[in-house]
Amino acid sequence: MAIEFTLNGKAVSVDVDPDTPLLWVIRDHLKLKGTKFGCGVGMCGACTVHVDGRAQRSCVLPVEMAAGMSVTSIEGLDPEGGHPVQREWIEKAVPQCGYCQAGMIMAVSALLAENPQPTDEDIDMSLTNICRCGTYPRIRAAIHAAAEAMTAEAGQ
Amino acid sequence: MTVSRRNFLCGSAAIGGAILFPITRAGAVSSEAAATQSTEILSWIAINADGSITFRVPQVELGQAVTTTIPQILAEELDADWETIRVEFYDPRQNRPDGTPYSWTTTLGSSSAHYLFQPAHIAAAQVRDMLLSAAATRLNVSKDQLSTDGNAVSAPSGETIGYAELAPEAANLTHPAPESVTFRAAADRRFVGKPVPRLNVPAITTGKLVYGIDVDLPGMRHAAIRQCPVFGGSLGQVDETPLAGLSGNPILLRLKGGFVGYNSPVPEGQDPDLWAAPVKTDDSVVVVADSWWQAKSAVESLEIDWDTTAHADFSTEALRARLSKLAEGDLPVVLERGDTATALSAAPQRLSAKYVFPYMDPAPLEPLNCTVLVEPGRVSLWTGSQYPDDAHRIAAELTGTPPDQVTLHLMNCGGGFGRGLQNDFVHQAVQIAMTMPGVPVKLLWTREECIQHSSYAPFTVARYEGGLDDRGQIESWSLNIASSRSAEQSYGGTSFPYFFPNMRIGYQRDEWATLPFGWMRGVGMTQHVWMNYGFLGELAAASGRDQLDFYRDLLDPRHIPEVLETRDIAVERAARLRAVLDRAAEASGWGAPKPAGTGRGIVVADSAYYPGYASSTKAAVADVTLGEGTVRVDKVAITINAGTIINPDVVHQQLEGAVIFALNNTFLSEITVEGGQVQQSNFGDYPILLIDRIPQIEITILQGEGDPLGVGEDATPITIAAVLNAIADAGGPRIRSLPVKELELI
Ligand code: FES
Ligand code: FES
């Protein structure tokens, strides 16, 4: 039976086993490869997407749970890379291998939407994605910079 | 097809009409050219008709930034316009043993910058010279009146001709000899030494960078694998019936395990054991289906009989006991000076200790994968191997295809840390594709398979004995190293830069241990530097001396034996180590009073596996705070002299990453085995540090000279050592076994 949801603003319909994780539907059926697979069990966050605006680990989310919802993957955050989080990721030269970074950026953009000025403690509590390359110091710096940029833009 | 080699890095459209220099054309080197040309320069540069320049990078990109740093070197000597740079990976067919044009294509031992710096410089300068010659002929002026900039040659008259226009003529010229070309003076460099932003970062932040796992070909099928849970076991019965009811047209394959190759190039005529370890696969069961999720679900639903009896008694507990016993006995001696046994028994003060390093999995974040298409007479494969030439060889040999008909598309890779040097997954993927000619198939391992079938840093037990004289000077140093299967890594003991009047080092490996060996970031130094410094720290403490004073004194050349054959090298090395140690001490304010409950550790090291090996020199200073059963790492400061720096920001990134890798090694990483089977299966039981326990990291790059030296791995061994010495300094336990279990990292 077809499952329908919105991906990056476009209505999509897929005919897959309903328990197929959203991750594999996005990657292999809808062919958007920016969302990554790292563990498959919800531990690493490489597969983070937004579902109705909230960060979700798509490797453990059966696609049927996303039916009717609005899903945003890294490709939909801002295709030009203009989201403040993306801009600061470039500015602070965060990525090394880059494999975790789509998930990081999605997790951080969701965090900032909820908490526009996170403290270091807030970041420690809420950002539980793995970066094996160890880009964490730059991630932290980029989050603060993005928070500032977003607040400044909001104030304009 | 959705992927092409050109698209991987820049997301740019394919460029038409690239004009390749004859030296750069795959498989088209004329015998005359080959005979007269230096072979190192082949294939680096293509000048494109649209005015852009394509640089080919002869290594995989794993995050070490080669797809930016190698272009920086090439752009420097070619006077290229950075905005027009395109980057591709090399094609291993241009790097066959009959002419190694790139010198070095394996990503191992932090060697890329060092090995590729000169060849890249020379190649780019040669190409520039040829473009100048072509322009000189056209304009009828002498070459030395011409200058280059922004992909063009300019004459004093003001006339300029673009490289693209000159390329066809330049391509027909004989290459100038490397000695005859001119290089930009170091002081005038515009790219090398500058924090040039990494080219692939915009693609990463928009999810557009294409990794091996992202390869998608028309009609592609997906493979999931289950390997024998016990290394060296064998496959018995598999009941195929559950597959019948499953979606995705699953088919079942059985793969026989066997020898794959070595995990590093072995120079001709050399003993492989000194350079590499054999790579093997185990028997496995594979399901191929329309999607990977279907293949994975199907393979996991199978009841499989494995015969594991031969190795079911293997456990890390038993291994620890065996290696401990070995280390207490007499091991084959790899280094002996003076009479250690006599000196030890006569020593007024004598210490002994045993240090243990567990198995560890490098665990890059991208699970292992390889896509293969076998067609009549040719093979294509897509993978992010760290040893691509061997992946290419494997595909050619397994399929019986002539090497020039095997195309390897090297892919960006989500981390390596040594795991990708073992091409076991490539070997499996080729075998799978051979059963379905004309159909591309992507093999992707689960995280569980990655952790349970990795190639592990070796389990190592080291037993030390040391004797101090009445004045607290070390008179004797005895070390026995017993490890699981490994490439020869006795350098972990012999390369320790300190000299004592009586020294003895024994080394032995235990083949009983079934887990395969692999290179992990820092290689043997990661196992040994912290142990060596740990025991040295114990001796320093016993003699009541400050760590820094103790090491400084030991680095005095008077300790280096006059009879040492490589004495000059040792003296020079000690001076280098001492200079970096002093700078690190100065930068960290060593000696300043410390609050109670805090501690500091300082160590200095290089990676000179043997005397004279070109290595960077670096020191780590760690600050820790102890609590009730807890430790917090407050700060790690790294000071490094790595010769010429190509890109300082990349050096910072690599060192930051290596420090954090070290904290994982120190506090979290441990693979254990029970009943022959790895106990860990995913990041729940093989955890990786998150952002909440990362110390402040400070990097100081010292002004260096000469060719660039390694940076990728080097902060790892010294960070482990400095943190553990800091814990002891704070009054905490002397840690002798990793990962630290005595204290919880907070
Ligand atoms: S792949 Fe989903 S959390 Fe790791
Ligand atoms: S950048 Fe490599 S895993 Fe984060």
List its salient traits.
heterodimer; A: Ubiquitin-like (UB roll); DNA polymerase, domain 1; 5-stranded mixed beta sheet; 5 strands; 39% helix; 15% strand; B: alpha+beta; Aldehyde Oxidoreductase, domain 4; 7-stranded mixed beta sheet; binds FE2/S2 (inorganic) cluster
Describe this protein's structure.
- The complex is a heterodimer of chains A (156) and B (746).
- Chain A has 156 residues and is of the alpha+beta class.
- Chain A has helices at residues 22-29, 74-77, 84-91, 101-114, 120-126, 136-155; strands spanning 2-7, 10-15, 48-51, 54-57, 70-72.
- A five-stranded mixed beta sheet of chain A has the order 2-1-5-3-4, with helices on both faces.
- In chain A, strand 1 (2-7) and strand 2 form a beta hairpin.
- In chain A, helix 3 packs across helix 6 (136-155).
- Chain A is globular and about 45 Å long.
- The model of chain A has no long low-confidence stretch (mean pLDDT 97).
- Chain B has 746 residues and is of the alpha+beta class.
- Chain B has three domains: 5-205, Aldehyde Oxidoreductase, domain 4; 212-311 and 362-452, 2-Layer Sandwich (Aldehyde Oxidoreductase, domain 4), CATH 3.30.365; 316-360 and 456-745, Aldehyde oxidase/xanthine dehydrogenase, molybdopterin binding domain (Aldehyde Oxidoreductase, domain 4).
- Helices cover 29% and strands 23% of the residues of chain B.
- Chain B has 19 helices and 30 strands.
- In chain B, the strands form eight sheets. In chain B, strands 10-13-8-20-17-18-19 form a seven-stranded mixed beta sheet. A five-stranded mixed beta sheet of chain B has the order 15-23-22-21-16, sandwiched between helices. In chain B, strands 24, 25, 26, 29 and 30 form a five-stranded mixed beta sheet that branches.
- Mean pLDDT of chain B is 91; it is low at 1-42.
- At the A-B interface, helix 1, helix 2, helix 3, helix 4 and helix 5 of A face helix 6, helix 8 and helix 18 of B.
- Bound molecules: FE2/S2 (inorganic) cluster (FES) (2 copies).
- Residues 37-40, 42-47, 57, 59 of chain A line the site of one FE2/S2 (inorganic) cluster.
- One FE2/S2 (inorganic) cluster sits between chains A (95-101, 131-133, 135) and B (63, 365, 415).
